[in-house]
Amino acid sequence: MKGDYRSGGVLIIFLFQFFLSLHSVIGWGEWDSVSCYTCGITTIDPENDEEGSYGTDPGENKKMYNHSCDLMDNGLGGNYRFAGQELEPRDWVEKIEHTEPKLDENGTAITVCKEEVLDTNGTVIEEARCDPVFRNWTETRKRPPKSYDMTMWVRKCPEGVRSCFKAQGNWDEQKPVFRGCSESKYAHGTTCKRELKAVRINPAAPLVDVEVYLCYCSSDNCNIEINSGNPLRVDGASLLTVIATVLIILFITEE
């Protein structure tokens, strides 16, 4: 067992509730805020932002940013098989109508013949003719896969939010990634910080260092990758929010 979830349960539950309270948003609309790539935080759910907006079928104006950043990063890397979207759903087909002559067992076209028609004076009013018999059938053919839709990972941030973040945790060979909207309603600029937190996983064991690398940027959809040598100046609540999230994921998923 890499980490003892039970021994740290009280701390994890507190952090989870704290994080959830910070991200509670009532209603959603076209207000003034940035949009950010969002992933890795299950409490940030499209259905909570706007009912009926969740889905994994691209091209349907749906959102899936409550899923893991592993899926999003697979989509960015072209590994679509493990990127979470339904690019070839079962009903993604086209129906093609066909009409062709019917053939007998010898391969000869089957015909239906009519004799000529005469009027009462013996005049031909309709010529004798033979018409081929046709059969109609429908072919169901798979369509080419849909294009991967990165906009499904984009979230309109709460009103007034000016920055996006990307964070990566590091503990015991685990390096989960998180992306989302900053909680602060001011622009951080492009800044990064490495934060090392001592956490007691087991009451009988010494503290362990959990590393969180956190970056901010302040434009729409800027947080796929953020690289900056600028020091991060961020209020304590925002930093605690991200660190809490990383700790939850690191320890709540332990076997």
Brief characterization of the structure:
This protein is an alpha+beta fold.
Give short descriptive properties of this protein.
CD59; 4 helices; 2 domains; disordered C terminus; 12 strands; alpha+beta; 255 residues
What does this entry look like structurally?
The chain is α+β, with helices and mostly antiparallel strands and 255 residues long. The chain folds into two domains: 9-88 and 148-252, CD59, CATH 2.10.60; 93-142, no CATH class. The protein is built from four helices and twelve strands; from the N terminus they run αβααβββββββββββα. It has helices spanning 9-22, 46-49, 69-76, 236-252; strands at residues 35-37, 93-101, 111-114, 117-118, 124-126, 129-132, 134-142, 154-156, 164-170, 177-181, 191-199, 208-217. The longest helix has 17 residues, at 236-252. Residues 1-27, 229-240 and 250-255 have low confidence and may be disordered.
Strand content: 25-35%
Profile the largest sheet: 4 strands, antiparallel
The domain tally reads: 2
- Based on helices, strands and strand pairing, what is the structural class? alpha+beta
- DSSP, total strands: 12
Kindly report the spatial arrangement of strands forming the biggest sheet: 10-9-12-11
Question: Which architecture of the largest domain would the CATH scheme give at its second level?
Answer: Ribbon
CATH level 4 superfamily of the largest domain: CD59
The separation of the N and C termini measures 6 Å
C-alpha Rg, in Å? 31 Å
Write the layout of secondary structure elements.
Blueprint: H1 9-22, E1 35-37, H2 46-49, H3 69-76, E2 93-101, E3 111-114, E4 117-118, E5 124-126, E6 129-132, E7 134-142, E8 154-156, E9 164-170, E10 177-181, E11 191-199, E12 208-217, H4 236-252
Antiparallel strand pairs: 1-8, 2-7, 3-6, 4-5, 9-10, 9-12, 11-12
Helix pairs in contact: 1-4
